[in-house]
Amino acid sequence: MAQDGPRKVALIANCLLNQNAKVCEGARYRGVVSPVVEALRSRGYLLQQLPCPELAFAGARRWWAVYEQYDTPAYRAHCRRLAQAVAPLIEQYLRRGDELILIGLDGSPSTGVRFTSSKPEWGGRPNRPNDDWEIVPRRGVWIEELEAELKRRGLPPVPATGWALDMGRFDEAGSRRDLEAFLDSREVGAGSHADDPAP
Amino acid sequence: MTGDARGWHMALVPDSLINPRDRTGAGRPDVLSVLENSGYGVLQLPPPGEHGPLLAVIADQVAEYAHHGYAVVAIGVRGEPSGGLHWRRLAPLLRHRGVALPPRYLVRSDAEGEEERIARFLSGYDLPVEEQRRWRV
């Protein structure tokens, strides 16, 4: 890789490098999510870990939650503070011509890209596994605020997808195929992609 | 935590070790793979430069982990300013949050057998047993 030429940089959800950030009972790996890292590194991507908004807000011992529970003014303000902290770094990459992508965590109320979790009437004591929630095609709160901050800075949308860890039933092989298809489509049509829309 | 796979260990790691300029260089340790194989999560430090707000966010996260039963270490680079860990900025931020400074290992990029030494350092560190019992249920 040429040291001074444009580079490929993947902005990745915090928990893809550190599963300790996951909500209680949500970690599927000890630390690093190896298939994601392997798929990105083998294609020459540099990794840029994003902060975990839930950990710093609700703590390491938090309960699981849905989009609507995090869709509050205080949490959005917290996400904006985090976005403002990391945006200068992202801006540096974009200004030097690097090719950026974003890998979030599908199904997450915060970091979902294609999908988030939803149940407007959820509240009170969690009752897993009997609790039921919906998976809906929408960004999580953190990704919404991060993208809004980049837009405020006049930066272009970053093509994005999600590792489907929080979709209810985790299918690693399917998630890997999805991610690799996204990455390989970038290789085929480099430079011609618009932001991956929520379906 | 039923069915939860977390390893309760993580390392602060400089950007230069996550994204080395030449990952195939002979003898250069692949620190990310060593961390992965050791069951450690990663908290990535930004590249050199002024990143005050981001370092404060990272310090908040380290404090949350350190206060709830997680073992946190730092893997730096020998010869880089502050080991590549922004230590002069990060250390006071951690102290301010009541966090003992994580044990540090400084990687020698040209030393033979360095990956094994890093792995030994990682496997040799944990919190006192009573702290583990308190939180890791």
Number of domains of chain A: 1
**Strand content of the residues of chain B, in percent?**
5-15%
- Structural domain tally of chain B: 1
**Biggest sheet: strand arrangement of chain A:** 2-1-3-6
Mean pLDDT of chain B: 93
Q: If helices are DSSP runs of H or I spanning 4 or more residues, what is the number of helices of chain B?
A: 6
End-to-end CA span of chain B: 6 Å
Q: Rg of chain A to the nearest angstrom? A: 16 Å
Euclidean distance between termini CA atoms of chain A: 34 Å
Q: What's the CATH architecture name of chain B?
A: 3-Layer(aba) Sandwich
Secondary-structure content class of chain A: alpha/beta
Strand content of chain A: 5-15%
What report would you give on this structure?
The complex is a heterodimer of chains A (199) and B (137). By secondary structure, chain A is an alpha/beta fold. Chain A has one domain (8-188). Chain A is built from 7 helices and 6 strands. Chain A has helices spanning 14-17, 34-41, 53-58, 67-70, 73-95, 141-152, 172-188; strands at 8-12, 45-49, 99-105, 116-118, 134-136, 160-163. Chain A has a 4-stranded parallel β-sheet with strand order 2-1-3-6, sandwiched between helices. In chain A, strands 4-5 form a two-stranded antiparallel sheet. Chain A is globular. In chain A, 45% of the residues are buried. Chain B has 137 residues and is α/β, with parallel strands linked by helices. A 4-stranded parallel β-sheet of chain B has the order 2-1-3-4, sandwiched between helices. In chain B, helix 4 (87-96) links the parallel strand 3 and strand 4 (104-107). Chain A binds chain B through residues 1, 3, 17-22, 24-32, 34, 37, 41, 46-49, 51-52, 55-56, 59-61, 81-82, 84-86, 88-89, and chain B through 1-10, 18-19, 21, 23, 32, 35-36, 38-44, 46-47, 51, 53-54, 56-58, 60-61, 64-65, 68, 70.
